[in-house]
Amino acid sequence: MMLDAAHGSPNAAKLPRPKLPTRLRSQAEAFLVLRRNPLELWGPPAYRELVLPGAFLGRQQVLLNDPVAIRHVLLGNHENYVRNEAARRVLRPVLGDGLFLAEGEAWRHQRRVIAPALAPRVMPILSRHIVAVSERFERRIVASGTGPVLLMDLLQLLTLDIAGQSMFSLEMGAFGAELRGLLFRYAGDFAKVGLLDMLMPAGWTTPLDRGRARFRQDWLALMDRIIAARDAQGEPKAGEPRDLFDLLRAARDPETGQGFGHALLRDEISTLILAGHETTAVTLFWACYAAARLPEHQAAIAAEADGLDLSEDGAAQSVQKLVFTRAFLDETLRLYPPAYLLVRQARQADRLGALPIAAGTVVSISPWILHRHEAHWDRPDDFDPGRFLPGATPPDRMVYMPFGAGPRICVGAQFALTEATLVLARLLRRFRLTLPLGDAVLPRGLVTTQPDRPVRFRLAPRDRAP
Known about the structure:
With 466 residues, the protein is α+β, with helices and mostly antiparallel strands. The chain is built from 16 helices and 14 strands. It has a 5-stranded mixed sheet with strand order 2-3-9-6-4. A hairpin with a 2-residue loop joins strand 2 (51-56) and strand 3 (59-64). Helix 11 crosses helix 14. The model is unreliable at 1-8 (pLDDT under 50).
């Protein structure tokens, strides 16, 4: 997609990004970079070429930036391309047998059950939860004064509380510290891919796997306690689901009539909590970072939100009117996609155009690269919300994929966008964000696209009523 110049913003600007390598690395160097920051792994050819074949640790690899080839992998022949064993080892401790890691008929069953619980018609219920938590969050900021705050930490707590409220109608005060502690332990000890994760066949246990198994026991015990606390609230009134837990527990597969047993329901909840809370937190962080660096855009969001009813009663209707705010978030997701890399492995031999794909080939699709690729975007490193405003040519769905693409596109995308739009609009309507002078904040690929260091923001109240 090449944008017409008329759709560009006069205030487009570049934001910092990791430096590109200037030479070809050895495989040992590449592995160390992969452990430190995968976003530094790819050199200039990755941002110019459409197909980049290669090899790593004795296995055939290919990086795809070609929309036709990506459509084939994620849509046309998606059953042939499954998550590789390294990704399964890393994610299984938290996600178990939930939707994210399921394959084949198990995935189809789970998708059929879950999708209605996150359909657009449910957004008014979830919007009320989002706004209720956001109001408490804003009051805490006001009470804490105007000193600099570690905004990423606050946003993680906010989105965790929204996840708990939306999922269980529970404030997460009783569980939040333990849940954050477990996620911190997971990210620090088990979320990085180890050498043996990539080399060992499925079914072989690595030392990291043993630690991950102990972590999973602790994680499941906490999930069981949260569910027990939710059950203590009793059943909802007939026909009046309170939250996602009510919707998921009552949901049935329209083809088989089956719902979720306790173990699978627990894994689906874990998937929604991890995916929904962490990805939305990093999206909001990068949106706030961009807003602080680009004050004219921040002012536009505040002005757009100022005349709208963003209360619990009005938010569901008003969110559709936050046109610039949504475009700003879309551009944030372009330059800072939370899921920076999708990795699949070919089960059987295939072809991607003229390129033969042997069984076992690792196929990588990186939204981080796709969203900055010279063949698909005009001025790819410029932050320009005008790309997503009404009248701009929409990008190809296989070129812009912050939530994935094809049948396995993130089932919670609508909820995540609704949450991020409402939280950002309310936050910038009430506070003016500024950053102290200092070094640039760079993105770092961990489980999601994180800032490379803690960052303190100042949040000064604007001259208006909340």
